[in-house]
Amino acid sequence: MQFWGLTPGFVLHVGAHKAEEISEYDINGFSKVIWVEAQPELAKYLQNHLDPDKHTVICGVAWDTHDDFIQLKVASNSQSSSVLALGTHAKSYPEVVIDKEIVVKTLRLDQVIPLDLKFSLLNIDVQGAELHVLRGLGHLLRNFNMIYSEVNRKYVYENCSLVNEVDAYLKTFGFRRVSTRWMFRVGWGDAIWVNEDSFSLNKRIQATMRNLKFYFFHFRLSFIYQVKSRWLNSHVS
């Protein structure tokens, strides 16, 4: 975040889960966070454990409609829960299954977020429903300096938002994707968009080099893991 010159300010985090990122926000000086969580049990947990002077918790599915009802598919690992059915995710992570479905209410965020707040960061972690979240923000998207989100280049969830679709939508609001890190062989990753005013060729080159280091590190770990697995299998047999 500091690399792109992001000034600490308000954060809107959609797909809060258990607020695992809270320490990162604290370290980087982001003292005010609005958390949006679809699972009622998790939203209640956050309300009971977070400082209400610094954190606001909103319960509901961030969507492009308001006050509708939708089925949320709760996964066995909780973090993979989504309003969308599992796509290639089921093959990539066979240990994760849908345990149950619950009915939850949809929220357009431009109906529940204060209109006058200027946000530093929008963080989206909603398992394939990114475009629905963005559309539900309406013109409030112009109140953000940076967007960080999971992205998909495969249908990890059925009918999920693909990265090129998200790019095209955000471009209409003046955002450019400047960094992407893909997880190996599973069709999803993480991406950053910044206002085009914050974009420079030099920073793009630096970001590319940082991403290459990331890929090299994870490729090396994957290679070492495969070698060890083969060695163990050959000696066990």
The largest beta-sheet arranges its strands as: 3-2-1-7-8-10-9
Task: Assign a percent range to the helix content.
Answer: 25-40%
Shape: globular
What distance separates the N and C termini?
Answer: 48 Å
Description:
The longest helix is centred in the last third of the chain and has 36 residues, at 201-236. Residues 213-229 have low confidence and may be disordered. The protein has one domain (2-199): Rossmann fold, CATH 3.40.50. The chain has seven helices and ten strands. 33% of the residues are buried. The strands form two sheets. The protein has a seven-stranded mixed sheet, sandwiched between helices. It has helices at residues 22-27, 40-49, 89-92, 109-112, 130-137, 163-171, 201-236, and strands at residues 10-14, 32-37, 55-59, 61-62, 69-75, 98-107, 119-124, 144-152, 175-182, 188-195. The chain has 237 residues and is α/β, with parallel strands linked by helices.
